[in-house]
User: Fold this.
Amino acid sequence: MGRCTTCDSDEHPYLRGYEVVVVAVLKNALRTEEYEYLTTEEEVCAAGGVGPDDRVEVAPILPKDGLSFVTSDPRAIDLEAFRFLARDRAN
Assistant:
């Protein structure tokens, strides 16, 4: 939590190129409507880490205003920090 990364999401084009901060992990949100909402590093580790079926709740860092209070939930693989998950899924 609190990790800074950049976003490149077709689902959330308004975030494309923005630096964002990780707020939570929505574990298995791409696989089921009954996902876990994880807000601590300990919870994420206990759930097996961030995976390709997860969404990640993020808050953009706005150039003039700092951290936005508005959040979005792109796929984990749409964030630079987790892009390796897409490559792992393909193999």
The chain has two helices and five strands. The two ends are 28 Å apart (CA to CA).
